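User: Could you check the structure of this?
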Amino acid sequence: MAGLIALGLFAGACSTGGTGTRDEGAAMTAPTQHGVASPRAPGAASKTKTVDPVAVLRKDPTVSKRIKAELKPCSGAGYPVDTSYGNLTGGTVPDVVINVLTCADSVGVGTFVYREKNDAYEKVFEAEEPAVYATIDRGELVVTQQIYARGDAATFPSGEDVVTYGWADTKFSERYRVRNDYSRAVGNGDGNADESAAPSDH
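Assistant: Sure, the predicted structure tokens are below.
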């Protein structure tokens, strides 16, 4: 009888399969659309929490009226705001990067970085300029700004500046700057979208 009971307990333990709770808990994902994931500081993953980016920006009196005017739903499909979470300032909880876009063409009009302090969010970086967008890359803040020449369409800028910032002495400092000039001979950037790509018959 003891042998049968032991056999029954063994079978019961094996029958749980994948239906039981995993010891390590559910996998955590950051609600980003364009952002690049960055390594978290030890212990930060357990304290990660999402924020309402629209509420954070609206509550901040230093955010301009121009940016706040963009904080409205796009055709009822949600707000034009991208949010990234990652450790940028060396804190114990992830920092928050918020990008505000235009509804019409998804061009960035402002980017902001907040860190949690005393159960509130303190802004530590901002760039309220046209065609700007920020991501997190391996613990550093990377800000890309499109460059437009006269006559450029919104979808075909002439180039971009990519600036990498690192956190030091309670503020972000520029580490690297890269300028990329785009070719004018491809796509519609040269204004010759209607020209035939076929070779001549000469």
